[in-house]
């Protein structure tokens, strides 16, 4: 026989020394009075053994104790079921403390519930830390919203004089100018366009951050829209002596319902980037029907280039605001790093998605999928 089987265990002594509160309630009495509390319970609550025994545990509750939690405890006890809850209680001096409370019914050989054993863990520090995190997050969110409001208003103010400057540059270029002056005006126009692009992107980011950006469901012709988008970028590709190619699936419907403006904004950004980061070779825009039904048509767009590519370790940051894959690229090619962030946000608004596949020095491919309504009646019915 084992030596351990011969030694009588002093259960009450062991339980009394636990660093968790242990209570035993008389389940046979309607008042459910405390029959036993250990030393940790008295230290935590400030109530002595004699002050606690014979009382219902509700004496620990106070004005801020959650009534729903109390109701769930009472329901479990009435059904003789185990329960685990977090509850706010009060010490004898009125100080609040949080408990993780575990209650289990104890049945005798006849199946009668005779006791409820409660084990309580003091989680006050954890709850305090959670509250501090919530407060900090709330303050950060308010600060962020305020900053976005400021950015939005500031960029609205900047856009008006910038448009005026761009107009004056165009007017100056229409007059008689020398080759040197023409070069200066071209540089000024390029700088103005870059700055205007940053302002517009910042405005979009501010709108997205404040939840002010919406999407439309209007009729548009997808193939005609693609043709217009490609034509817009032909000159930039020609100036860099790279090919700009477009292939569209013949099954693309003539008419769809969605937001052509937001779709154009996404594809414009992707094509602009592809041309910007490609020194030789070509840029392709491929349009395919991914899924099609009577109600919905999902189009898949692919923008491929033979440009500088993206390092694999920087792919995860690609859609972060103000991020470019390499700071030297920002100096060489320009840009704020906001474009792809806006693309991702806009696509999420349209229930679409964007992914990227790239090999450094070989090129990049962005894949975009967007669902559109196949018939206007579906949208109107909703």
Structure, explained:
By secondary structure, this protein is of the alpha+beta class. The chain has 12 helices and 12 strands. The strands form 3 sheets. It has a 5-stranded antiparallel beta sheet with strand order 2-1-5-4-3, sandwiched between helices. Strands 7-9-10-12-11 form a 5-stranded mixed beta sheet. Helix 8 packs parallel to helix 9. It is elongated. The termini are far apart. 21% of the residues are buried.
Strand content: 15-25%
Q: What is the distance, rounded to the nearest whole angstrom, between the alpha carbons of the first and last residues?
A: 77 Å
Largest sheet, in brief, is: 5 strands, antiparallel
Number of helices: 12
Going by helix content, strand content and strand pairing, the class is alpha+beta
Gross morphology is: elongated
Indicate the radius of gyration in whole angstroms.
34 Å
Sheet with most strands: strand arrangement: 2-1-5-4-3
| Tally of DSSP β-strands | 12
Could you name the ranges where pLDDT drops below 50 across 5 or more consecutive residues? 1-7, 324-337, 378-382
Order of helices and strands: HHEEHHHEEEHHEHEEHEEHHEEH
Helix content: 40-55%
Mean pLDDT: 80
